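Question (not urgent): is this output format expected?
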Amino acid sequence: MTPAERIDSPAELPALVALGEQVERFAEANGLPGSTLFAVQLCLEEAVSNVIRHAVLPAGARIGVTLERAAGELVVSITDAGPPFDPLAAAAPAPHESLESAAIGGQGIVLMRRFCHDMRYQHVGGLNRLRLAFPLESAST
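Got this back:
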């Protein structure tokens, strides 16, 4: 078991594949259930891809990801040096009248709120830090 792991990832969309593989290895080493792995990967990909696509980062920028198994939960922390952005303060998108009128995108923060049981944001020392916590269910669920 590896109760904590720090990953330093390039701030580039192709790096999401390697990041996902590292998360899978952590999940396997820690016996995390598939439902938790799914939720973590979905939220992590959404958060990191948003930083890569929307933050104004210099060439060669890195994104830090920490995975930590704590009392009854898995905590994922994402840090970046982009401009301050608090996803918790972002307005929820307006509901669509129909599937045909729905635009692609804009639902990532909503998804993250549904899959995490706790989300926290802070901007400290020039870094954005998003903390996502996921309940650890038994492996049989």
